[in-house]
TrEMBL record:
The chain crosses the membrane at residues 47-63, 96-114, 126-146, 152-172, 179-200, 220-237, 302-320, 340-359, 366-384, 396-420, 432-456, 468-486. NCBIfam families: SP. This is Major facilitator superfamily (MFS) profile domain-containing protein. The lineage of its organism: Eukaryota, Fungi, Dikarya, Ascomycota, Pezizomycotina. SUPFAM superfamilies: MFS general substrate transporter. InterPro entries: MFS_dom, MFS_sugar_transport-like, MFS_Sugar_Transporters, MFS_trans_sf, Sugar/inositol_transpt, Sugar_transporter_CS. Keywords: Membrane, Transmembrane, Transmembrane helix, Transport. The keyword Ligase does not apply. Belongs to the major facilitator superfamily. Sugar transporter (TC 2.A.1.1) family. Residues 50-490 form the Major facilitator superfamily (MFS) profile domain. It is a multi-pass membrane protein. Gene3D superfamilies: MFS general substrate transporter like domains.
């Protein structure tokens, strides 16, 4: 009898430990589901601040986008990188101009994919630091460039760092905060993108008219401020607890969680992370890009790809890139048109701030009514363009609709793209899933940068506002997909999401699904 006693005791101890683990995990799930926004902001304000710091890196993405387009209109920029015609006017070669507009997007595609394997290996902090070093070097190339080739090389390298910034920020925010704050913090990525656009517009407005090379060199140099702040501050941020647990460093994970939380025990939070990681590692032994397209992860990856495809096919490149064009048609002087362009981005900031309420109250499927509104607006822009006796008053109407469209875009689709991208992938494949998402975004941005000018320009398609019909048609398809295929992830822990995808729950039933009904 004594021989059998030790195994029985060991089994009893193991069962007791398992029961305690499950109890702690359930305690944390209950805490997460019952936590109010006010409680979260009080107890996890440090997690929110650390996440905001990582989101700050996204400002460079928006800034680069806006500065690139604005510099093409700066006389001194054209004088240095263009050629002078017999009549004294300076022209930028069309092919080089197209390359200048697209090269950062190509770099962003590479940077997104590069971040997939780097982030799980080095962690979120080191990955952000690497991106800062790459960014600083690329800014050096742009600041001291006096030839087209060197400037394009600087833009390409900068694009790599921009792709890495977005992937790292989304991944970190999704893993650093409790469920009630997760959507808001990931949405901050889009807010900082729009803030970057606003800053870019302001810098071009302030220095673009100078008669020396600092007309474009100052806007380039201003970018140095951001990686300098990031690389100095990132070492004071805690690493992602999920990354520590995946590396088997549970003590470090606990210390990280203690820095995210203000007071109280973090044991139950740590247990939930450990269980999530354990379950995912049991279901698959490898982690890579191919794994994103296997099993239940395939559905999750396709959702991420679809959301970023919808983002581009909603008409964002058409509406925002050509807002100044409509303002000029309406009769505004060029300088005033650029002022209105600043106003468009300012409206975007307001929309982003309002989106926090939408994301936390209505949820991720608020993308469906948001898409309906966006679809109606682009279709109306198209309809106004075929009204007989098109005049400046109608152009003013289209301009107003562009501003309204931008508000609703940044209220729903804009930030929700980042939120869904950050939440949808499994913990094991998060860096790879987010990387695929931003690769998709950059890919479609590149395609739209090429084809939209052919749609709009008078010497090509000459569609002008009628381009709204094309994007309106795509948006109708997007509305249908959103209704039937986009699951509601609001208020769900990553373990719950893993379970629901494993059970193949219908997208429309995610919000009301009860795990206890499955015996889980």
């Amino acid at each position: 009898m004594d021989v059998d006693k030790e195994p029985i005791d060991s089994l009893h101890v193991e069962a007791t430990t398992t029961d305690l683990t499950m109890a702690k995990k359930l305690d944390h799930e209950v805490l997460e589901h019952n936590m109010t926004l006010r409680q979260a902001l009080t107890n996890y304000r440090k997690a929110m601040l650390y996440s905001l710091f990582f989101c700050f890196s996204a400002i460079l993405w928006g800034y680069d986008m806006q500065v690139s387009g604005g510099l093409l209109a700066a006389p001194e920029f054209r004088a240095v990188f263009g050629y002078t015609q017999p009549d004294g006017t300076t022209i930028l070669p069309a092919r080089w101009q197209a390359a200048f507009n697209m090269i950062a997007t190509v770099g962003g595609m590479g940077g997104s994919l590069l971040c997939g394997p780097i982030s799980p290996y080095f962690g979120r902090k080191v990955t952000l630091a690497i991106a800062c070093v790459i960014s600083s070097g690329s800014i050096f190339l742009q600041f001291f460039a006096f030839s087209r080739g060197v400037l394009l090389a600087g833009k390409l390298v900068n694009g790599i760092s921009l792709g890495m910034f977005l992937v790292t920020a989304c991944s970190y925010c999704s893993e650093a905060c409790p469920v009630v704050l997760r959507g808001i913090t990931i949405a901050m990525v889009n807010l900082f993108v729009v803030i970057g656009q606003l800053l870019g517009n302001c810098l071009i407005r302030a220095f673009g008219g100078r008669t020396d090379t600092f007309a474009y060199r100052i806007p380039f140099a201003f970018q140095w401020l951001f990686p300098a702040i990031l690389i100095c501050g990132v070492w004071f941020c805690p690493e992602s607890p999920y990354w520590y647990v995946q590396r088997g460093k549970h003590a470090e994970a606990k210390k990280s969680l203690e820095r995210f939380q203000t007071g109280g025990s973090v044991d139950s939070w740590l247990v939930e992370i450990q269980e999530t990681v354990r379950m995912e590692e049991e279901s698959a032994s490898s982690a890579g890009y191919l794994d994103c397209f296997r099993g239940t992860d395939l559905r999750r990856t396709l959702i991420v790809i679809a959301v970023w495809t919808i983002n581009s096919f909603s008409g964002v490149n058409f509406v925002l890139s050509y807002s100044t064009y409509f303002f000029q048609i309406a009769g505004l002087p060029t300088s005033r048109s650029f002022d209105m362009g600043v106003g468009v981005t300012a409206v975007g900031v307001v929309g982003n701030i309002c989106s926090w309420w939408v994301i936390n109250t209505i949820g991720r499927r608020s993308l469906f009514p948001g898409m309906i509104v966006l679809t109606i607006i682009v279709l109306v822009i198209g309809i106004l363009d075929v009204v007989p006796n098109y005049n400046s008053s109608i152009a003013w109407g289209q301009s107003a609709l562009i501003i309204i469209w931008n508000f609703f875009y940044d209220l729903t689709l804009g930030p929700l793209g980042y939120v869904i991208c950050g939440e949808m992938s499994s913990t094991r494949l998060r860096s790879y899933g987010v990387s695929i998402g931003f690769f998709t975004q950059n890919f479609w941005t590149l395609i739209m940068t090429i084809i939209v000018p052919y749609m709009i320009n008078p010497d090509e398609g000459d569609l002008r506002g009628k381009t709204g019909f094309i994007f309106g048609g795509f948006s109708v398809i997007a509305c249908i997909w959103t209704y039937f295929c986009l699951p509601e992830t609001k208020g769900r822990t990553f373990e719950e999401l893993d379970h629901m995808f494993e059970q193949k729950i219908s997208a429309r039933k995610f919000a009301k699904h009860d795990r206890r009904a499955d015996g889980a």
